[in-house]
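PT: before anyone asks, these are the final sequences, not the draft ones from last week. 998 residues across everything. Please model them as a single complex and drop the result in this thread when it's through.
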Amino acid sequence: MTTSEPKRRVKVKDASDVIAGVVLFGFSVVLIFYLVPNYINEPPILQSPMMSPQWLPRIVGWLILVFSILLILQGLLVEGSNEEDERTIEKGSPRRFGLMVVALAIYVTLFEVMGAVFCGILATLILFVAHPVRTWWVYSLAFVFPIVVTFLFVEVMNVPLPMMPFWF
Amino acid sequence: MNKIINAAFSAVCGGVLALTVSVSSAVAQEWPTDDIRLVVPYAPGGTTDVLSRRVADLLQQELDANVVVENRPGAGSTVGTGRLARGGRDVDHTILMASPGHTIGAAIYPDLGYDPVEDFVFLQNMIDIPNVMVVPADSPYESVIEFVEAAKEENMTFSHSGVGSSIHMSGELFKTLTDTNMTAVPFAGSGAALPALLGGDVDVSFENMPTVLSHIRSGDLRALAVTSAERSEYLPDVPTLSEIGEYNLDQFVTTAWFGLVAHKSFPEEAQSVMQDALARVMEREEFLDFAEQLGAEPGQVSGEEFKQFIADEVERWEDVAQQAGISQ
Amino acid sequence: MENFSEVIEIFFSLDNFLAIAIGVVIGVVIGSIPGLTATMAVALALPFTFSMQPVAAILLLVGIYKGGMYGGSITAILIRTPGSPASACTLLDGYPMAQQGHAKKALKTALYSSVIADFISNIALIFFAAYLAKIALNFGAPEFFWLICFSLTIIISLASGSMIKGLMAALLGILLSMVGLDDVFGSQRLTFGSYNLMDSISFIPLLIGLFAIPEIIEFYRKKAIPHIKAKASGAGLAFSELKRCMKSIVRGSLIGVIIGAIPGTGATAAAFISYSDARRRSPNKANFGKGEVEGVAAAEAGNNGVAGATMIPLLSLGIPGDVITAIILGAFMIHGLTPGPLMFQENLSLIYALFMGIMFSSVVLLVVGNVAIKYFSLIADIPKSILFPIVLMFCVYGAYAVNNDTFDVGLMLAFGVLGYVFNRAAIPAAPFLIGFILGPMFEDNLRRSLLIGSNDLSIFVRGPITWFFIVLTVGSILLAIYRYLSTRRELRAGTGTGDEAP
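LR: through. Structure below.
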């Protein structure tokens, strides 16, 4: 997303706005002409068009369409203001980012299967390694927190979390 | 804590002696051998939840086992119910508090993925809450007959607490039976629906008794009829709809029922233990007091009778939903 | 006042004080854990109240409610994880403040404005309950519709930076809020046959995903920077600053009281209305959203002003305004009490004992809050490399706990990615949230009005309340357009010279 090199002299003033605008334009077209008619059932008898379940989604769809065009125009014509500076970040190593993605994936895919404690420990460890945290005792927190918090949730507050399959 | 020690102990034994032993020992032991999960298919705080927590508390004392309440809300109770129907590992220690959503849900949701009757065993109907047909205090209608006659002439609006609630379906049933002009006005829960009724924005509602009882007593609402088979002891002067005798209303008997069900593979031994315990719970002073606070009558049916009742309900609501055009 | 002694007798029992204290502590602690909400805490505490005296039982629940309302703001400020939707507004300025090393100041501001708002709200409950209850009854669907329209206009003032992006975010929020079963016909909308989507998208996963997860993603996307060892908890709140915020706090509290007295609107709308009002009036408007004390104060005043006022429709009409008061209503009924007009006749001394307890709970909140701040502000000193993995774990557990469903964990992470994309594209998340909350209310009340009025549009102008909000709405839009145009003119003049500089 941060590909807009400041040196390159192009007509486009704010590339990411244009991209966002185009994406949203495409989305709104799909919404209005495909999703709304196919995935929202309309009852056969309606006293007023405003009563239809499709009414507001349609209006929102058209408004998104209009605003996405405005966004594209804004990106093409209006000079990006100083907020641009906040958007550019210094990217870290792909390994760091990749490990975070792995940690998130663990939570999504293994949470029900392997239980809250297991996933908590594993993902926290991975995130510590990703940073990397160099203080060795911190790694023990990756074990303490998931176990203690799970115990609190399940036993004290009676909020069930998935347990490991062999934890009958 | 006991449970953890137990679990550790049986894990050690089981590890050495293989699974068969622990299975057979589980059979030999009196049911329940573990914590019992009481699934509430609604969010915390509603009638179903409050009732379930009360029942869990009493059941715990009768059964000498932990009863843990677990909320699995979603899609008018069908999410939690569907999950139970699909089974799972501790299905022999799981019970569910079913309510009208169980039968109405079957009528209005497409492909539930389970059979609301055949996939369950029916333990005990805990309480029945009648609905009350109420009109605002300044409404010109003093009786059901007057109301029906007026509704044949002009369009009436009735408020309800959400599509597929027993309040909504009662209204639709009334409309179908009496063949009147009525428009359903949906609200997000009874709490939101009540001001519209009190303020006279809608003409009538078929609210649950506990929601409107105090307003009837204070004179802010007028009760025209109750929907149960017999008059309610809380409103002895108010006739039942079936008493009216005209406009097919003799067929109008419906209550918001709440009862415990379990998965169809729930062991038979467990069923009898459970039914005995529940019968004892229902005799307890605390339970009867609680039911009174809700304006409810203790449930009448259990076992096969309960099952038959559910089967009839499913059929009835399917008809109503179809005629009202809300079945998808 | 013949039953004065009776009131004293009912109120002054150790049980009551214990109940309030325990309630507030539980509320603050649970409210401050991401994903665990005051609603959940109240529901879980309910069975324990079965065996208690009625007054103590209700006060325990009220204590949890109030503690939870404040507790939610702690995590909002410290780790950008709103404990409740209402505290999402607090994080707009609270989190930047914590990042600048003013965590303690932000927490104290939140606490003091919460307590003051709570106090004002309780006064309103005690003295104006009957009057405010009348407003609630005159508030039908058309009145609601215009109130929502007015609330939607605050999106314009919240859209910092680009108006187009702000409105776009709001539209996307409205669109997502429509996923689920249609309220009138029960037909499915954009659920694609998924049962998890039928009850519409769960709120807590959306909140956590939208605000907390993008921070975490961004942290790991960025290059590792060494933790700057500073006493990040920083200084407390100076009296002069509190004085400066006082007007916003009082105004926010009153907004909260009005909104709270109308069943079904909720603390979130109050917080955002109060916030945007404070911003509109503030001399340092530009600092809002970047760590402005007054922003925190206004948001917290708005949402806590609601707390006492939601008891108004509950006690005087027997109408619960939100889920928590619905549970409290349940607690009343379990103890053989039915809130409503009759209770004021039959159990007056009990009601006054309750009022005293509710007033007392504000004091307890102040004490407990101060202690909590002392320890919680230490969280701001923990390096992010250690804090964030643990925060993520809490977020996942919390998202799961809402519905006991892994689907919500996935949903939360999906919203995390969306929130991250929003950050990158400089699309503000707050309008998205407002759109998500107000969208369904807008549609429902529009259709409800049409149903009640049999499609006669004149119902939308049926009384003084509707006109009042129509004027407010139109005025708010005109003001926004005027402001937009004038800042545009200024900006053009400003950037003109700015371009010459390099």
